[in-house]
UniProtKB/TrEMBL annotation:
One of its GO terms (molecular function) is phosphoglycolate phosphatase activity. The lineage of its organism: Bacteria, Pseudomonadati, Pseudomonadota, Alphaproteobacteria, Rhodobacterales. Keywords: Carbohydrate metabolism, Hydrolase, Magnesium, Metal-binding. Its cofactor is Mg(2+). InterPro entries: HAD-like_hydrolase_sf (IPR050155), HAD-like_sf (IPR036412), HAD-SF_hydro_IA (IPR006439), HAD_2 (IPR041492), HAD_sf (IPR023214), PGP-like_dom2 (IPR023198), PGPase_prok (IPR037512). Specifically catalyzes the dephosphorylation of 2-phosphoglycolate. Is involved in the dissimilation of the intracellular 2-phosphoglycolate formed during the DNA repair of 3'-phosphoglycolate ends, a major class of DNA lesions induced by oxidative stress. This is Phosphoglycolate phosphatase. Belongs to the HAD-like hydrolase superfamily. CbbY/CbbZ/Gph/YieH family. Pfam families: HAD_2. The gene is gph. It comes from the Bacteria. Mg(2+) binds at D13, D15, D174. The keyword Lipoprotein does not apply. Its EC number is 3.1.3.18. It comes from Paracoccus stylophorae.
Length: 226
């Protein structure tokens, strides 16, 4: 792979990578379940369903609760009315603002590639105060494809000035979807290990793993100069 030097685009997943949004998603899911007379699910259970977008989230909720799959469209619509404004329980992971600030100061163009729909994505980026740091944001409804298809990630890199067909860039994420997407582009993948992944670390292809955002700028520099 070609050497990647600053300015080298760095694109991030959102849920489970920069933000812990599981409490808000959990609250929205359970509000819909209660509305339909169904027992609520625990936070850890709902957290394990996050990553593939809203439709996959609800496919997993339906499988876990025994709801008629034919109800999915209505359940998703009810969920989205709440999800668009659900930011009150979402928090940045410790060290995220500082790490992003260092990368910005060093000249790295930054973007977001998430399976979260654009409406909730923009709302939560504004809520946590980091929207201004990203030159490109690709949401789960920005394109026909979602991660792990590489098309959204290629689009994010392209919007930041990289060659979409052969980007010299870095992707940072937390899940199986992110690891598979990065490998499909392909670009180096940095894995945040405290997110929402379901697989074992050793089963995910990655360039490096970190559990503290203080380590991220150094990892980006080392990958960029490899």
């Amino acid at each position: 792979m070609s050497v990647c030097l600053a300015p080298c685009p760095v694109v991030f997943d959102l849920d489970g990578t920069l933000i812990d949004s599981a409490p808000d998603i959990h609250a929205c899911v359970n509000a819909v379940l209660r509305e339909n007379g169904i027992a609520p699910l625990g936070l850890d259970r709902v957290r394990s369903f996050i990553g593939g977008g809203v439709e996959l989230l609800w496919s997993r909720v339906i499988a876990a609760t025994g709801i008629d799959p034919a109800a999915q469209r209505d359940l998703v619509a009810s969920f989205m009315t709440r999800y668009h404004r659900a930011t009150g329980l979402t928090r940045l992971y410790p060290g995220v603002p500082e790490a992003l600030g260092v990368l910005a100061d060093r000249g790295y163009p930054m973007g977001i590639c998430t399976n979260k729909p654009m409406g909730p994505t923009q709302a939560v980026l504004d809520h946590v105060g980091i929207a201004h740091l990203f030159g490109a944001v690709i949401g789960g409804d920005s394109m026909p494809q979602k991660k792990p298809d590489p098309a959204p990630l290629r689009a994010a890199f392209g919007a930041l000035g990289a060659d979409p067909a052969a980007p010299r860039a870095i992707f940072v994420g937390d899940s199986e979807f992110d690891a598979t997407c990065a490998a499909a582009v392909p670009v180096p993948f940095l894995l945040f290990s405290r997110g929402y992944r379901r697989s074992r670390l050793e089963d995910l292809t990655r360039r490096a793993t970190f559990d503290d955002f203080a380590a991220l700028p150094g990892l980006v520099e080392s990958v960029a100069m490899a």
